[in-house]
Design brief:
Order of helices and strands: HHH
Distance between the termini: 46 Å
Shape: elongated
Structural class: mainly alpha
Oligomer: single chain
Strand content: under 5%
Number of helices: 3
Helix content: 55-70%
């Protein structure tokens, strides 16, 4: 798979910022905080993805984590 010239590099600093903000927002929900912490550990010390496949994996995991957070938060509101 060739990298496209307009391919935007994954911004790990922004990803960590969003994870930290979400964790603060949901600090009262242990399940969400734990989920975010587990993913945060995966990206905490990365400088950049090792290759395109790793970058795609990180993007996918980030999106999946955000989806899970939304689902958990929605269930918590309905309880």
């Amino acid at each position: 798979m060739s990298e496209q010239p307009d391919h935007e590099t994954l911004d790990l600093i922004e990803m960590r910022r969003q994870l930290t903000a979400l964790r603060s927002k949901h600090s009262d929900n242990l399940l969400i905080a734990s989920l975010l912490n587990r993913f945060f550990v995966k990206v905490a010390f990365l400088v950049k993805p090792t290759d395109l496949a790793h970058e795609q994996y990180l993007r996918s995991e980030f999106e999946r984590t955000l989806t899970k957070v939304k689902e958990i938060a929605a269930r918590a509101k309905s309880d």
